[in-house]
Specification:
Number of helices: 11
Strand order of the largest sheet: 5-4-6-3-1-13
Order of helices and strands: HEEEEEHEHHHEEEHHHHHEEHEE
Shape: globular
Largest sheet: 6 strands, mixed
Radius of gyration: 21 Å
CATH topology of one domain: Ribosomal Protein S5, domain 2
Strand content: 15-25%
Length: about 375
């Protein structure tokens, strides 16, 4: 793959110079959805699919980008003197946003780049192709300039760029998982203080199967920001009766005690999801550590139900995939993953049942929705770095 991409890079940008290569994975969140901006816990892992970068520093300040995924767009050109979001910049808003954010944080970028990207994460799938590009760009900048930044710093700068340059009010989970991923482990992350621990993913005779709904969605134009605002309003109402900084500080009993302070039934359901989902995530990691994969699966299912009924971010496509998955033999758990409104589901399926699972769920989905889903049997990989 690397040699082939370098050849394409030379074809597009010419030979010579110090050409370097990087990889940033995608991620899937096993449980803990819409908790990361509510001060709760998440449990993501990095995948072995992701984004490849081939890059070379230039003598001038020009930026030239090419993606094999968007070949029809050709080479998109910009400059370090014009790091502003624009519709015309298309996907290059993500790497440019990170360059802008490094500058905002005091790291001066003096020379432009030729950069080729190639991703094998389905676009708009909810497996964090945008965060993969952000973290990969951060790793590239650190390597090319020798910046003294940690992988956690790179994750935070990536989040800052998405919030402030691309105007998507995302939490830290995606960038953190992609920066800090560890092979065969998920990350139990407390988003309130960024404390984390690695938990081995021991699925015995089962694997993680991702189903991509192929319903395209963009976070910025979805109801993501609306949900976040609803939670912030619910938190402000709760703060009139209890001393908390985030919804993640409450357990289920405390939420039930104080929920009447939230004056809207809709906001009450949004906050309930944030609180209960955080507790489910804590319980799920404990179950996994104890080797109780069946309990982990039950908590995944409860997570999806809450995302459907209380948070209302699933939609017909994801609900169809999960409902069909739960009818199949050998399925331990299934739920939507990512922000919702399209994207993917994640299921844990016994090895002997994977082929039948893909065939049966795929058929029911196409019959119901009218177009096909794509399936990926994935492995848990390391975080971003040079290759």
């Amino acid at each position: 793959m690397k040699e082939k991409l370098i050849a394409t890079f030379k074809e597009k940008f010419g030979d010579g110079g110090d050409i370097r290569s990087y990889f940033a994975p995608g991620r899937v969140n096993l449980i803990g959805e819409h908790t990361d901006y509510n001060g709760g816990h998440v449990f993501p892992c990095a995948l072995t699919i992701g984004t490849y970068f081939i890059a070379r520093k230039r003598e001038d300040r020009a930026l030239r980008f090419y993606s094999t995924n968007f070949d029809s767009l050709g080479i998109i050109e910009s400059s370090l003197d014009n790091l502003v979001w624009s519709k015309e910049a298309d996907w290059t808003n993500y790497p440019m946003g990170v360059m802008w954010a490094f500058g905002e944080k005091g790291y001066e970028i003096t020379n432009g780049f030729d950069i080729l990207l190639c991703g094998n994460i389905p676009n708009g799938s909810g497996l964090s192709s945008s965060a993969s590009v952000e973290v990969g760009t951060g790793v590239l900048l650190r390597d090319m300039y020798g910046f003294d930044v940690s992988m956690i710093d790179i994750a935070l700068i990536g989040q800052y760029s998405e919030n402030n340059f691309n105007k998507v009010n995302c939490g830290i989970m995606d960038q953190f998982a992609i920066a800090m991923g560890k092979k065969d482990n998920a990350i139990f992350l407390d988003t309130a203080d960024l404390s984390y621990e690695y938990a081995p993913i021991v699925l015995k005779d089962a694997k993680i199967v991702i189903a991509c709904s192929n319903k395209k969605r963009g976070l910025g134009d979805s109801k993501y920001n609306e949900r976040r605002a609803e939670c912030e309003e619910a938190l402000a109402e709760l703060q009139t009766v209890v001393d908390i900084k985030s919804l993640g500080e409450l357990d289920e009993a405390q939420f039930e005690q104080y929920k009447s302070a939230i004056k809207s039934e809709v906001r009450q359901r949004r906050a309930k999801h944030a609180v209960y989902e955080n507790q489910r995530t804590i319980k799920a990691v404990a179950a996994l550590k104890a080797g109780d994969i069946e309990e982990f699966g039950k908590l995944m299912i409860a997570s999806h139900d809450s995302l459907r009924d209380d948070y209302e971010v699933t939609g017909k496509e994801l609900d169809t995939l999960v409902a069909s998955a739960l009818k199949q033999d050998g399925v331990i758990g299934s739920r939507m993953t990512g922000a919702g409104f399209g994207g993917c589901t994640v299921s844990i399926v016994k090895n002997d049942n994977i082929d039948a699972f893909i065939e049966n769920v795929g058929k029911e989905y196409k019959d119901t929705i009218g177009y096909a889903a794509d399936f990926y049997v994935v492995e848990v990989g390391d975080g971003a770095g040079t290759i």
